[in-house]
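**User:** My hope is that you can spare some time for a protein that puzzles me. As I understand it, each token names a local backbone shape. I would be glad if you read both lines and explained how they fit together. The protein I mean follows directly.
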Amino acid sequence: MASQILSGSRSLQLDFSNVQTMAVPTKDAAQYSKTTQTDDDRISMGEFSTGSQEFDYDDDMLPMEGGGFRGRIHSHDVDSPITDDLAGILPNIPGFNFVKHKEEPEAVKEEPAPVRMPDLSEEEKVQIISSQRFQTFFNYSAKVIERALAEAENVDIFVDYARDGHGETVASSDRMVLSRVFCDPKWSQNRAVTGIAFSEQNPELVAVSYDSNKDIPSEPPGVVLIWNTKFKRNSPEYVFHCQSRLASVAVARFHSHLIMAGCYSGQICMWDNRVANKKTPIHKSPLSTSAHTHPVYALEVIGSHNAHNLVSISTDGKMCSWNVDNLTQPVDGKELLSRQGKQIPCLCMSFPVADMNNFVVGSEDGHAYALSRHGTGQPNAQEHTFFDGHSAPVCGIAFHRATGPVDLSHLFLTSSSDWTVKLWSTKDHKLRFSFESHNDCVFDVAWSPVHPAVFTSIDAEGNLFLWNLNEDIEGPVARMNIAQEGFLRKIAWAENGQHLCVGDDQGNLQLFDIHESMYVLRSEEWTRFARVLADMKQANEEADEMSEVMSRLSDGLGGLGGGSTVASLAGVNVSPRQNW
């Protein structure tokens, strides 16, 4: 049956077909088991896991009692043949030696030998005991100990009545400390300082005018340098020059970029620091009869921000008012004449604080004059007051500048070649006091801008004097000789009263730091100075009464031949400088 079926089926026709083979590489899958080491019962026995570490280095061996070392305690893998007993077995095996660390002995620190102070000689002991500092310390310490023994209550036993309100008593050498010296080898060396002016808008800047350098006549005769007192640089901020010798300098109060200087020729030069690389003047006043034709020794900018002028005076008695923006012609001019109708040879000038009209000048004839810019009558008619007290030219003059509860703007100082500094008042036109501590010509004087009783003066011997009339009216509280080879010419205070600039005839500008007691005021400084002025006035009145009595006595004894004796008595209190 099966054969029938197979024979009855149709035959199959098979063909060969092309088969494409392609080999696909198998991807090996990396298999691994991730395990985490966990703590077991050995933790409680003081063991800890070290992972796969089976052996330790020699550094991990611990010393044993009786010598030798044993390994540190570690936990090992379960399959590790090393156990904790191995450390105890190894030392007993023959031929097995442990490496022992050699203990270095600690370095013994040598203690330095105690320093023994050398014994003082008897002369040194006497010198120390007799010194002022030791006596002051000893006396003060003795007072403190006595107070501690005598006082039972809780009181301040350390109070020192010799100290001022600011702390320790200020020594004379500490009141003025030299801070810096400004000098340029090319532009200022061997040139005399003729003017110093601080900038109000930029208080750290100071303008200084210099005279000609006689050693190098090819250099410009007049030079103005702008120094910076804030930054520690040796060169000036700006350098200006002109072809005329300079006698004075001023910085425009409301135009900080404008610098003006008075020339010996009578011209006024102006520079602008905004003009790059411009060292020569941008404006000059004309040489004409309407302006100055003689040396201009004084310049000052007065007024307010909206109405201000530049005022200048010359040695021919000519005063001119200028518009700061225009120097082609003065706004106003006036001849300063004395009561005899002569021209006043002005050498210096000063305006009171916040006053545009009234001012004072010092002249070559030894007088100081109180004048006004705007007269009431004809141009040559002068209504003024002169102050007679100096016997030589008045070189410096300065109004009181400090403002406070007491109005002292009527006071002014004058310095003269008769070696004196005098205090005046425009109210009574009388001499208040004469300061006679200088031994040579006093070239300049200046009030402190903040302290009512402080001023400075300089002389031809190179001495700088610092005065505080609340402490002493007979002599300065500090003095210093700062010009060994020449003499001092000009001084100027910084607006805050903390610095003082002094110029000499060698081209040096020295900057001094003033002690804080000279500019940090106590409340009683003004009242103390008012009492000092009252005492001066009373002493002058008593002196005038005594002079009248002596005069009447001289008139009464004139017929008896005693006039010469009385005259000699009247001149007992007159200083030799007054007769110079």
Observations:
- The chain is about 15% helix and 30% strand.
- Helices lie at 2-8, 86-89, 122-130, 132-150, 172-175, 525-556, 563-570.
- The longest helix spans residues 525-556.
